[in-house]
């Protein structure tokens, strides 16, 4: 486990890898692999959210819970799947809210990489999962590591928009400085809860409005078409 491809985060987060909790997590993951358990995403993508969005470029933070646990889905960005993979239900609802909020037609894929490149940190609280076994790696140490990531953004960045969807994300973001950052809260976009207030929350337009007020570039939420990704 290393942050070689995330140089902006490395000075702050590399010390975490020497902590006993991260050593225990590493041993757990090695034991899972030795037991021939399939872990998602691939180890090369465990820190992809940090690699795609440098610390000094974070504008928006979206907190997910657990990676997708079926083959070919997870690639290290919360809510995102690789091109050509069916768009998961929560992301379908995110697209519905984008359409009602900003008039952006739903993308024909679920690949959110272009958001990450623009400064949207798509961070899962837990960075690995066992195939077909949701939440299998909860409580093993990842949460403490990602708490540190959120703490860093809170301390080191200015005027970030935190989109906290669902009670889990809201608890994880409880210590964010609301005098310095904009914290937006709504129910989770999952089909079980989206109708309780995720639909109509207007988070995407509110985020861009805030960024523009701070003299920052708004996020281009419209994703490139699948054909552009495959060319």
Q: What is the topology?
A:
Elements: H1 10-13, H2 20-34, E1 39-40, H3 48-52, E2 60-64, H4 89-102, H5 113-117, E3 120-124, E4 129-130, H6 142-156, E5 161-165, H7 167-172, E6 182-186, H8 203-213, H9 226-230
Parallel strand pairs: 2-3, 2-5, 5-6
Antiparallel strand pairs: 1-4
3D structure, described in words:
Residues 51-211 form the Uracil-DNA glycosylase-like domain. The chain has 231 residues and is of the alpha/beta class. 35% of the residues lie in helices and 10% in strands. The protein has a 4-stranded parallel β-sheet.
Summarize this entry quickly.
The chain is built from nine helices and six strands, in the order ααβαβααββαβαβαα. By secondary structure, it is of the alpha/beta class.
Structural class from helices and strands?
alpha/beta
Low-confidence stretches: none
Across the major sheet, the strand order is: 3-2-5-6
Cα end-to-end separation:
32 Å
Over all CA atoms, what is the radius of gyration? 17 Å
What is the average of the pLDDT values?
Answer: 96
| Order of helix and strand elements from N to C terminus | HHEHEHHEEHEHEHH
- The number of helical runs is 9
The coarse silhouette is: globular
Helicity range: 25-40%
Strands, count: 6
DSSP strand (E) fraction? 5-15%
Major β-sheet profile: 4 strands, parallel
């Amino acid at each position: 486990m290393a942050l070689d491809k995330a140089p902006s985060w490395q000075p702050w987060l590399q010390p975490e890898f020497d902590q006993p909790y991260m050593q225990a997590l590493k041993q757990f993951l090695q034991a899972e692999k030795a037991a021939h358990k399939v872990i998602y995403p691939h180890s090369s993508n465990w820190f992809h959210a940090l690699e795609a969005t440098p610390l000094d470029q974070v504008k928006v933070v979206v907190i997910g819970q657990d990676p997708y646990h079926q083959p070919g889905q997870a690639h290290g960005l919360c809510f995102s799947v690789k091109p050509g993979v069916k768009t998961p239900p929560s992301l379908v609802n995110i697209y519905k809210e984008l359409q009602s909020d900003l008039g952006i037609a739903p993308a024909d894929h679920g690949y959110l990489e272009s958001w990450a490149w623009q400064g949207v940190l798509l961070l899962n609280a837990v960075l690995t999962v066992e195939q077909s076994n949701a939440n299998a790696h909860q409580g093993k140490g990842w949460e403490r590591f990602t708490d540190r990531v959120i703490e860093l953004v809170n301390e080191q960045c200015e005027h970030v928009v935190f989109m906290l969807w669902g009670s889990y994300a809201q608890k994880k973001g409880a210590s964010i400085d609301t005098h310095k950052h904009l914290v937006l809260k709504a129910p989770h976009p999952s089909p079980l809860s989206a109708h309780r207030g995720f639909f109509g929350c207007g988070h995407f337009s509110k985020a861009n409005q805030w960024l523009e007020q701070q003299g920052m570039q708004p996020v281009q939420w419209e994703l490139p078409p699948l054909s552009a990704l495959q060319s």
